[in-house]
Amino acid sequence: MTRPGGVWQNWARTESVRPQLVEFPRTVEAVQRAVRSAAGRGMRVKAVGAGHSFTGIAVAPGLLLDLSDLSGLVRVDHERARATFRAGTRLHDVPRLLARHGLAMQNLGDIDRQSIAGAVSTGTHGTGAGFGGIATQIVAVTLVTAAGDLLVVDETSDADLLPAVALSLGALGVLVEITVQCVPAFVLHAVEHPEPLDGVLDSLGDRASSADHFEFYWFPHTDVALTKTNSRLPESAVRRPLPVVGRWVDETLLANGLFRAVCAAGTVAPAVTPPLSRLAVRLTGDREYTDRSSEVFTQSRTVRFVEMEYALPADAVRAVFDEIRALIHARGWRISFPIEVRFAAADDLWLSTAHGRATGYIAVHRYFRDRPGEYFAAVEQIMLAHGGRPHWGKMHTLDASALRERYPRFDDFVAVRDRLDPDRMFQNAYLERVLGG
Ligand SMILES: Cc1cc2nc3c(=O)[nH]c(=O)nc-3n(C[C@H](O)[C@H](O)[C@H](O)COP(=O)(O)OP(=O)(O)OC[C@H]3O[C@@H](n4cnc5c(N)ncnc54)[C@H](O)[C@@H]3O)c2cc1C
C-alpha cells in the first residue's frame, strides 16, 4: 500500500520503496499509455496488487502501477463456466461477482485480500491433493507488453505462451484481464480438530489423498496438530455456517487476538512461548460447519507475520517435517507461530512450485517483530536437501542459478521473457536475482 509521503510498503513490512511515480489506471488504455510513457522516459514499470508478497517481487522503484481501480467482472461465458476479470480485482470481491452466475472458483488460499493478478503471478495456492493452485484455473489472459501493445493469450491465440503467462512473476508484462475456469457454486463441510501430531503424521498420505482439502497446523512446543478437512458438497446442501458471534469469537478473539498476545509476549520473554502455545491449541481449532466455499477456504489474518514456504515432492513431507521438528528442539528456539502443511496436484505451468509433481507445502512463520534469520535459514537448508522449491512471494534466498536446477522449463520461461521484455522494462532487483538480468 502507498503511504503518505509516497512510500510503498508491503503487508509484512519487509519491503518498502519510494517510487519515482505512482499511477492508478482505471482502463486498459490507461495502462497502455502509462507503459508507453514510462518507456519513453526510460523508467521501469511494476504493477502491484495488494502488496501481500513477503519478498521484494512487487517493489517498484520506477513507475508503480497500482491496479486497484482496474477491477470488476468483464464478462461471463456461461456455456463454458468461464469468467473474465480485470486484473486488479481483489479475491474477496470474486465470490459476490460470481454468485449471481451460479459459479465459484475451484480452490482458494488462506486469505482473500490479494488481487487476482498478484495471486496468480506468484503461484498462490490453497490445499487439496487433487487441485492445483489458483494459476491453474486461468484459461486466458490479456497483457500489456513492454511496447504498450495488447497480447491476448488463450487456447486459440499464442496458446503455447499460456503455461508461462499464467504464472509469470510480473516479469512478462502487465496483466489487464484474466479469465478463470470456474466451477458450479458449491459448499464445503469443514471439520477442524486438534489431534495427536504423531497420529496425523503417520497417516499423512492417506489423509491428504482421501479428503478434498486437507491441511494441518502445528504449534512448535506442542504435540497437537490442528487439522482442517473440507469436503465439497453441491450448492443445494444444507448450510450450517458458524454463527456470526461464534465466528468472531473463534477467529478474531482467539485465532487472532489471543494469538497476538502470545506472539507479543514471546518476543519479550521467549520462555513463555511453549506454555502459551499449549494454551492456544487447547482454546482453538475444534469446530464443524458447512458454508459457501469462499467462506470456508479463507480466513482473516490480523496478526502480522513473515513467512517462508517451500514446495516439496508430496512423499517427502513427513521426513522434512520430522527434521524441522528435531531442529527446533535441538536449537532450543521458542517459536510462537505455527507450521502449516498443505497439498496440491501436479501441474504443467512452467514456474509453478507444483510443476510436474504431486506437491506438499511446508510453511514456517515468525511474528513480524521476531527476527526470522537463523530459523528460516536452517529450515531452508532442509527444504533444499529434499528438492524444495520456494514460493515466489515468500521469503527465500535462492537465485537464478539455484532455481534453474529446480525448474525443468526455467530456460523456456527466460526465452519468453527475452522475447516479450528484451529491455527488462518489468524488472526489479528481486526478478534480477531469481530470473537473471
Ligand atoms: C496474510 C497472508 C496470507 C497469505 N496466504 C497465502 C496462501 O494461503 N497461499 C499462498 O500461496 N500464498 C499466500 N500468501 C502470499 C500471497 O498470496 C502472494 O504473495 C500474492 O502474490 C499476493 O498478491 P498481491 O495482490 O498482494 O500481489 P503483490 O504482492 O502486490 O504482487 C505480487 C506479484 O504480482 C505482480 N503483479 C501484480 N499485479 C500484476 C499485474 N496486473 N500484472 C502483472 N503482474 C502483476 C507484481 O508485480 C508482483 O510481481 C499470503 C500472504 C499474506 C500476507
Helix content bin: 25-40%
**End-to-end span in angstroms?**
27 Å
Radius of gyration: 21 Å
Mean of the pLDDT scores? 93
Multimerization state: single chain
Query: Strand sequence of the main sheet, in spatial order?
Result: 17-14-16-15-19-20-18-21
Beta-strand content: 25-35%
Bound molecules: flavin-adenine dinucleotide
Q: What structural category characterises the helix and strand content?
A: alpha+beta
Describe the overall structure:
The chain is 31% helix and 25% strand. It is built from 14 helices and 21 strands. The protein has helices at residues 28-40, 94-99, 116-121, 162-165, 197-202, 204-210, 244-268, 273-283, 293-297, 317-331, 373-385, 400-404, 410-420, 429-435, and strands at 2-3, 7-9, 16-17, 21-23, 45-48, 63-66, 73-77, 82-86, 103-104, 138-144, 150-153, 174-181, 183-184, 186-196, 213-218, 224-234, 287-292, 305-313, 339-344, 359-367, 389-390. Strand 10 and strand 11 form a beta hairpin. Helix 7 packs antiparallel against helix 8 (273-283) and helix 10 runs antiparallel to helix 11. The protein is globular. The model has no long low-confidence stretch (mean pLDDT 93). Bound molecules: flavin-adenine dinucleotide. Flavin-adenine dinucleotide is lined by residues 11-12, 46-53, 57-58, 67, 87, 109-111, 114-115, 117-119, 121-122, 124-125, 169-170, 174-175, 301, 391, 393.
